[in-house]
Design goal:
Blueprint (H helix, E strand, L loop, with lengths): L32 H10 L11 H17 L6 E4 L6 H12 L3 E5 L6 H9 L6 E5 L6 H13 L1 E6 L6 E6 L4 E6 L7 H4 L4 E4 L5 H15 L5 H8 L6 H18 L6 H10 L9 H13 L7 H8 L3 H14 L3 E4 L2 E4 L1 H6 L21
Parallel strand pairs: 1-6, 1-7, 2-3, 3-6
Antiparallel strand pairs: 4-5, 8-9
Enzyme class: hydrolase
EC number: 3.6.4.-
Organism: Streptomyces polyrhachis
Length: 367
Amino acid sequence: MTWDDAEYGAGGPGAEATADPGASRLVGAAADGEDAAVEAALRPKDLAEFVGQERVREQLDLVLRAARQRGATADHVLLSGAPGLGKTTLAMIVAAEMGAPIRITSGPAIQHAGDLAAILSSLQEGEVLFLDEIHRMSRPAEEMLYMAMEDFRVDVIVGKGPGATAIPLELPPFTLVGATTRAGLLPPPLRDRFGFTGHMEFYAPQELERVIHRSAGLLDVSIDPAGAAEIAGRSRGTPRIANRLLRRVRDYAQVRADGAVTEELAGRALEVYEVDDRGLDRLDRAVLRALLQLFGGGPVGLSTLAVAVGEERETVEEVAEPFLVREGLLARTPRGRVATPAAWAHLGLTAPQGAAGAGRQATLPDA
C-alpha cells in the first residue's frame, strides 16, 4: 500500500473527516487519534474476516471477483452509513482483494480542482483512491471528478481569462471508493457514476459480540460470552464504539481485577465510565433529564434544551439527538423536541398527567 501522511489529516488513516463536537465521548462514533492507531491493528484484512454487513459483503465480493476474473479494474464503489460502521475498513479490503495499492484522502482536504488533479495524475494503474466524506468536496473538484471517473481523463486549465487553455490529461484506470455519512448531500451526477453502492447498517448485538471476541483475541484480553454480550449491548450498534468500550473495560479489569472480563465486571467498569445498559452516556441522560424534569416532556425548542444542559446547540443536535431518536427516546416535532414514554421509563420517572409523551405513543412528524 502507498500512504501519504499529508493526506490523512490529524486523525491518521481511517479517521473521520467530519469535525465532530462529540469526538471525545466514549460512545461517540467519530475516530480520534487513539482509535485510528488501534483500528489499524484490529482491522480485518479481507472480506472473509469482516464481521457483519452480510448483504454488502456478498454484493461487493461479486463485484471484486468478477473484476479479477476479467483482469479489469473494479468498478467505482460508494459506501454510505454512520461513522464507525466499517467504511474505511471495506475500502482497504477492496484494495487488498484487488492486489492494488491504496491512496487515502478526504473531501474536506480537496478544496480546489488542482488538489484533485495532483492526486489523480499520480495514480498508478489499478490503484484504489479512497475519498472519505466525499460529500464535502468542493464543487470545482467534484466536476473534475465526473470526467475522471467516467473517461479516466481530466482537463488541466493553464493560464487565466481569455488566454486560458485546457490541456487533456489521460489517467490510468483506477477504482474510486467514496465514503459518506450523508448520502443525500451527494449530487445525482456524482452518485450515478458509481458502479456499486452499499449502505452500511447498524450492527445487531450478536454481530457486535463477534466483533468483540475477535478484537479481544487480538488484544490478548480474556473475556467470556456474557462479558462480550454486556459490552455489545451498550455499543450503540457500532463496532468502533464496541472496540473502544472493550479497551476501557480491559483497563478496569487490569487495574481492579484479575484481567478477565465477565458480565459483572463489564457492568461495573462501564458504570465508572457513565455508560448505562442502553448505551446512553452523561450527555444523553442530561438531555433526557432536562426534557423530562424541566420541561415536562416537551415540546421544547432545541436552543432552549441546549441552554438547559449547558451545551452548544450543534452538540445536542448532532451528537446526542441522533441516537436518542433512533432508540425511540426522543422525537422531533414541528413544535419542538418531545420525550416518548420509553424516555420516562428509562430514567425511572413517572410522567405527570397530561405530559407530552405520556400514555400511548403517538406518531409524530419529523421537524
